[in-house]
Design a protein that fits this description.
The chain has 6 helices and 12 strands. The protein is of the alpha+beta class and 268 residues long. The longest helix has 11 residues. Bound molecules: 2-acetamido-2-deoxy-beta-D-glucopyranose (3 copies).
Length: 268
Amino acid sequence: MKVTAAILPLIASATASRLHGTSLLPRSADGTVDVNSFNYTNTGGPLTWYGLSKTNSACSEGKHQSPIDIVTEDIDYAAASSIRFNVPSTDNAKFENLGSGLEVVLTNGTLVAGNSSYKLAQFHFHTPSEHRINEEYYPMEVHFVFENSNNAIAVVGFVFELSQFGYSTPLFDSVFAHIDDIATPGTYTKTSHLDFTALTAHLKSHVHGLPHHPPCSEDVAWFLSTEPLPLNVQSYNAVKHVLKFNARYTQNALGQDNLLEVAASELN
Ligand SMILES: *[C@@H]1O[C@H](CO)[C@@H](O)[C@H](O)[C@H]1NC(C)=O
Ligand SMILES: *[C@@H]1O[C@H](CO)[C@@H](O)[C@H](O)[C@H]1NC(C)=O
Ligand SMILES: *[C@@H]1O[C@H](CO)[C@@H](O)[C@H](O)[C@H]1NC(C)=O
């Protein structure tokens, strides 16, 4: 059997791709939908995120920012293969439009990675993908954001590839069933029944590890599946219509100087 992908673990930094719902970026207590102050357009975009808050300096100085280009031949597959991802099925989860993101609020779910046990905070989507794999981008990416009792964050991500057979992992058809109802930032709807069994099975065979979004906190444990999930064209177009564009530009390789610092030094 040909192994086409893997789970690689990376510890990277970054604005942990959207930390909403965690202790770093708590959800509003009154049940309303928080609309993000950062975005991906003009002066609200990722080149200026570091200026949004004093806590965002890692966006311009961090050397372990996400997203990155993942070079599959450098992946340490063994380190990621031991993670345990478990999200029980659920009915009617809240699905919110945060302006610069679409997020499913679901806290029933756990991740065991290394010696740490994390609890799910939410999962959210990016179009196009944020990470690249051997330089190639994908039309969409989903991030499951977890936090442990020490407020450390771990993210499990999957990229999507359009299916020539019009097929999607049924879980995501259920998530997007009523997406047209949340075209306006600040609105929410409910998903259909969500069953994570197929996703968990997919992850068992394929993962990589690494992070980003304001705050660009580093020390986020990342696990990204390098084997794409199938997505049908109708769902993709519906998501893109609402989500528009929310991918941070590809960051420098882990451990290398932040590209904003490199660019500033070139100007001098
Ligand atoms: C993005 O943020 C900037 C700065 O706050 C704002 O001027 C702009 O209108 C926002 N654009 C979108 C598409 O939200
Ligand atoms: C979360 O799990 C609890 C306990 O099993 C259950 O009662 C609750 O309905 C679940 N919540 C969701 C949104 O599925
Ligand atoms: C987990 O804990 C064991 C025993 O304390 C330790 O030897 C091991 O290095 C730890 N593993 C990780 C990934 O932190």
